[in-house]
Amino acid sequence: MATSTWQTKSSKIVYENPWIFVREDKTITPDGKDGLYGVVESKNESVFVIPIDDKNNTYIVQQEHYTTRELTWQCVAGRTDGEPIEIAAKRELLEEAGLRASSIMILSRARTAAGISTFRSNICLARELETDMSVFDKNEITKIKKVSLDVVRDMILAGEITATESIASFLLAIAYLEKEKKL
Questions:
Q1: What is the pLDDT of residues 74-99, one digit of tens each?
Q2: What dihedral do alpha carbons 111, 114, 116, 120 form, nearest 10°?
Q3: Backbone φ and ψ of 85, nearest 5°
């Protein structure tokens, strides 16, 4: 990885809550000019989970986020809350889709909104699934739908799945399974 040519002159936290904090940095830009940068930092990493059953179907969840006030289809996702990635992925899958997975594979680590945040995301493939609605969070998820990966790809292309992290996670899972010759 290349060394950054940005310099930080000073840094202060201007906002904080239990999940994130925002810092304001006075900088020297790569071309030597003074700059000001706002950076959002998460207190934990996130997981994006693509469950795949033995027939190559996946599960998408419908959820309304406070920020957008829109019902959207997306993949299972959440915060690690300090847990190992595989444990957090299993927990989120159970809470959001009512699925228990015996196998979790980390496909990739990614940055979310790298221009304004330091958020680190982990994209996971979940397999060997069984239904378990014992801790399903019905207050967070409006609907769960089992669909083929072809349907997911069509939903992405039609603009029905719009969360960029979900788009990237689904397409990465599709590419991985195609390379594995499972699709």
A1: 999 999 999 999 999 999 999 999 99
A2: 10
A3: -55, -45
The whole-model pTM stands at 0.89
54 phi and psi, to 5 degrees?
A: -70, -5
Measure the CA–CA gap between 29 and 78, rounded to whole angstroms: 34
Closest CA to 166 of 180, 179, 152, 176: 152
Q: What is the DSSP string of the chain?
A: -PPP--EEEEEEEEEE-SSEEEEEEEEE-TTS-EEEEEEEEESS-EEEEEE--TTSEEEEEEEE-TTT--EEEE-EEEE-TTS-HHHHHHHHHHHHH-EEEEEEEEEEEEESSTTTB--EEEEEEEEEEEE--TT--TTTEEEEEEEEHHHHHHHHHTTS---HHHHHHHHHHHHHHHHTT--
What token pair was written down for 30?
């790569």
14-39: average pLDDT: 95
Superfamily of domain 46-179: Nucleoside Triphosphate Pyrophosphohydrolase (3.90.79.10)
Task: Report the candidate in 66, 62, 82 with the shortest Cα–Cα distance to residue 162.
Answer: 62
